[in-house]
Amino acid sequence: MYGRNRVALRMFILFTLLFSIHANAQVTNLTATVDKNPAMADESIVLTVVATGDASRNDFDPSVLADDFVVGRTSISSQTRVVNFKTTSSITWTTILIPRKQGTFTIPSFDIGGQSTSPIIVKVIPAAAPGQGQARDIFVTAQLDREEAYIQQQIKYTVKIHIGADLQRGSLAAPVLENAEIKSLGEDKEYSDIIDGNRYKIIERAFAIIPQMSGKVTIKGPLFEGEIVDSRRQSFGYFNQSKPVNRIAPDIELNVLPIPSDYNEHWLPSDFVQLNEEWQPTLDELKAGEPVTRTLTLTALGVLEEQLPEVVGEYPPDFKTYPDQASTASVVKDKTLIVQRVENIAVIPSREGQFVLPEVVVPWFNVGTKQIQYARLPARSVKVVKGDVAGQSNPLPVIGEIAPETPTNSQPTLDSGDQKSNQVQVVEVASFWSLSSWILLCLWVLTFFAWWVWTKRNLAPQTDSKSENITEKNQWSALDAALKTHEANQIFLALGNWLQTVCDRPSATLPECQLMLNDQALDAEIKAMFATRYSNSSDKWKSNNLRNVVNRIREERNNVLNNDNKLQALYS
């Protein structure tokens, strides 16, 4: 009997709860309140909306307040209570609102589940300046290093958080400006200061703002969110009571000037631009056919890496260039962006001589003087000497340039008494040897011509072809072995030696052989090899494509030689 009564009691309680829940299946009450009114322009307002009854967590939308306030995060909590078998449910929405300017604003009515809140009129007063009213626990200030700037010019934006309470935690957002690049400048700076008799800990953070559009713009101040110890609330044990704080820096107007109408160069607004160069090895060691690396470094203050232009240098026609991919980098020093663009170019002079490297010029706009300036590398004269390329030989002297012999003291001295007869004898001897020389010269020329005709018909084709083939085969074997290693340094030397035999120019440099062959595929592969050889990239270059090109050139050459030999045999 007792067991039946317990079951009946449980059933009664269950039906009662179900009935109570059904009875409250609607919103019975809806309220909206703010934690302060009036409020200062830089501090937050906490809007609390409470719905009693059956409400959904998604029924409240604070986005309608975005026109007058910065709408922060919204936290949601729910609660269910049963008192005397009566169930009461409620949902609370807590939203952070931050006014950006002073004035009177209206928080409109909200409708949830058939209930409505009353509108709230909020008065926002100016942020208290130092010396007005009681000391504030936290406030935020901001300033610009200039009120006017050119488009794509760096502006330094400094935020200071003044903390006069025990801060538990905090975070600071970045300022907001549409169509602009915003970067943090280095580490935060911390120090203390006394303002109107109150000591504040100050955290200073700097930002670089680079506007990308001209006109009057508004930089929206960054939001600071944190928690401080609430000294007005009692604490128990080791746990301190804290309260959230939200502060926002004031908005700042900025006038962004456009590019001057009379400026027609690459737009590079800066306070300082410098162009440097470095040669490795030095220009004193420039040799024909041997590469040197020229490094051009462009440095600028207060711009982005993307704003640096390509540094273009001109070179004489006898110089081949193989540029590497440019690299850029940026650092922060003294709260200023410093950017660099580095370009490495492999330069190979094809012949010896005296050359002039033209001036290198980079235009830029000085934002201080508001005038165009130029970063320059002056033109310079360089001397290219003969290279130490394997297979080169010294040129033969020209016969016409040999100076006549000068008489020496070893010749016999004439006595004064026999001077006349000796003079006559000298003239006769000179005439005799002159005639004999002409006769011998004619005989020698006839003999040489007869020998040349006989050699041309019988020995020259076979002997020269055999000797040349042996040389070409030896150089080809060395090149083939170098190609298998995929090492650019080894291939460079072996390729130059083999091309000398192909072009039949033992003293020609690699660029000269390229000009004689005029093969675009070969030029492209040599350029790719040099680009890898003087590049900082970790990618390993492969010689497979170069092997295919030189194989084709060798086959074409052998076909031409075979056809020439067949024609010579036919007409001999």
Please provide a written account of the structure.
- The protein is 27% helix and 37% strand.
- The strands form nine sheets. Strands 10, 12, 14, 15 and 16 form a five-stranded antiparallel beta sheet that branches. Strands 22, 23, 24, 25 and 26 form a five-stranded antiparallel beta sheet that branches. A four-stranded antiparallel beta sheet has the order 1-3-5-4.
- It contains seven helices and 30 strands.
- The longest helix has 40 residues, at 419-458.
- The model is unreliable at 19-24, 390-434 and 459-466 (pLDDT under 50).
- The protein has helices at residues 2-23, 419-458, 460-485, 488-503, 510-517, 520-533, 544-571; strands at residues 27-34, 39-40, 45-53, 69-83, 86-99, 103-107, 111-112, 115-116, 120-125, 138-144, 148-150, 155-163, 167-172, 180-184, 189-195, 198-211, 215-219, 223-229, 242-248, 252-257, 269-270, 273-280, 292-301, 319-323, 327-333, 336-349, 353-357, 360-366, 371-377, 380-384.
- Helix 3 packs antiparallel against helix 4 (488-503), helix 4 (488-503) packs across helix 5 and helix 6 (520-533) packs antiparallel against helix 7.
- It has 572 residues and is an alpha+beta fold.
